[in-house]
Design goal:
- The N and C termini lie far apart (77 Å).
- The chain has five helices and 17 strands.
- The strands form three sheets. Strands 3, 4, 5, 6, 7 and 8 form a six-stranded mixed sheet that branches.
- The protein has helices at residues 63-69, 97-103, 128-139, 156-165, 232-244, and strands spanning 14-19, 28-32, 37-44, 47-52, 77-84, 109-118, 121-122, 146-148, 152-153, 170-175, 183-192, 194-205, 213-218, 221-228, 263-265, 270-277, 287-293.
- It has 296 residues and is of the alpha+beta class.
- It folds into two domains: 14-192, DNA ligase/mRNA capping enzyme (D-amino Acid Aminotransferase, Chain A, domain 1), CATH 3.30.470; 194-293, Nucleic acid-binding proteins (OB fold (Dihydrolipoamide Acetyltransferase, E2P), Beta Barrel).
C-alpha cells in the first residue's frame, strides 16, 4: 500500500554542456538562457516548496511564487526552471535579484522550462517535446509570477543571432526526443553570447603549463582573469610595458587568494580590450585581444 504521507522529493537537475555553436538540425528545440537562479518548484499534498539548484529549501524567500504554484490546476507536480527578476520588457536583471529577494519578492518570476512529475505520474522518460506540451497546459497563460519558457524548433544559428542582437546571455538547446536525466548531459547544450569591453590590467600571472593571464579590473574592482591572446609582436610590447611599470603590490583590491610572488603587479595605465562570455559575474573564457598604454 503506498505511503500517502511521504512528500515529493527534490530531483537532481539536468545540467547542460557548454558548446561554442548551437546545433542546427530540426531534432533540437531552443530556448532563451535566463540569467537567474536555477529553481525547482514542487507541489504535493502538503503544499508547494521551492528549492535551489543544490536542493536547499528557499520557499520562504520565494513565497509569492510558492503561493502562485499552489493555485495551478494540479494536485502535484515538479517543475524545473529559473527564478528571475524581470524588467518591464521581460528581460531578466540578475543584479536586481538579491534586492528583490530581500525587499520585493513579489517582483520575482519563475520561468518554467520543464516538468518532471504531474499528478502522480513521473514524466522524466517522456520526450522533451511532450513534456513541454504538458507544461504549457499546466501553466498557461504563463504571464504572471509563473511563466512558460517559449521555444522554437530547429534554426539554431538564426535563434542564436537573434538573442545575441537582443543582448541576452545565451541560449539552451534540447534534443526534442530526449528524456530527463539528472546531472551533466549532452541532451541539453548551452551556447553563450560574447561581449568585448575595456578593462584595466592589474598584473600578469604566469604558471607552468598554463596560458599566461592578465588579472583585470573594471571601474576599480577586480573582474577576473583573461588569457593573453596577442600576436608575438604585441606580446613583446606588452612585456616591455609591464617591465617598465612593475609595482610591489596590487594597485587595486584583489582576492586574497592571489599569491603576490606569482603575480607581476603593475601600476595603473595599461588598458586592455577583452573578449568574454556575456552574463557572467566574473570574466570567463576571456582573452585579451589588444592593449593600449595610457601612461602612469
Amino acid at each position: 500500500m503506498p505511503n500517502t504521507t511521504e512528500r515529493l522529493k527534490f530531483i537532481r537537475q539536468l545540467e547542460p554542456v557548454q558548446v561554442e555553436t548551437p546545433p542546427v538540425s530540426d531534432e533540437w528545440l531552443h530556448e532563451i538562457k535566463y540569467d537567474g537562479f536555477r529553481t525547482q518548484v514542487i507541489l504535493d499534498w502538503a503544499g508547494a516548496r521551492a528549492f535551489t539548484r543544490t536542493g536547499i529549501d528557499w520557499s520562504k524567500r520565494y513565497w509569492p511564487v510558492v503561493a502562485a504554484a499552489e493555485k495551478l490546476p494540479a494536485k502535484s507536480f515538479i517543475l524545473d526552471g529559473e527564478m528571475i527578476a524581470p524588467e518591464p520588457d521581460g528581460r531578466p536583471n540578475f543584479h536586481a535579484l538579491h534586492s528583490r529577494l530581500t525587499w520585493n519578492a513579489e517582483l520575482l518570476a519563475f520561468v518554467a522550462f520543464d516538468i518532471l512529475h504531474l499528478d502522480g505520474e513521473d514524466l522524466r522518460a517522456r520526450p522533451a517535446m511532450d513534456r513541454k506540451a504538458i507544461l504549457w497546459d499546466l501553466v498557461k497563460p504563463a504571464d504572471g509570477l509563473i511563466q512558460y519558457s517559449e521555444h522554437v524548433v530547429g534554426g539554431g544559428a538564426e535563434f542564436y543571432q537573434a538573442i545575441d542582437k537582443m543582448g541576452l546571455e545565451g541560449m539552451v538547446s534540447k534534443r526534442a526526443s530526449s528524456p530527463y536525466r539528472g546531472g551533466k548531459s549532452d541532451a541539453w547544450v548551452k551556447t553563450k553570447c560574447w561581449e568585448v569591453g575595456d578593462f584595466e590590467i592589474l598584473g600578469i600571472k604566469r604558471e607552468p603549463g598554463k596560458p599566461t593571464a592578465a588579472l583585470m579590473a573594471r571601474e576599480g574592482k577586480y573582474a577576473g582573469a583573461a588569457a593573453i591572446s596577442l600576436t608575438r609582436q604585441a606580446q613583446e610590447r606588452l612585456w616591455r610595458r609591464v617591465e617598465r611599470s612593475r609595482a610591489v603590490k596590487p594597485q587595486r583590491p584583489v582576492p586574497v587568494a592571489f599569491d603576490g610572488a606569482k603575480v607581476e603587479w603593475v601600476k595603473p595605465g595599461i588598458k586592455a580590450r577583452v573578449k568574454f562570455l556575456r552574463g557572467e559575474h566574473k570574466l570567463r573564457h576571456a582573452t585579451v585581444q589588444a592593449f593600449r598604454d595610457e601612461g602612469t
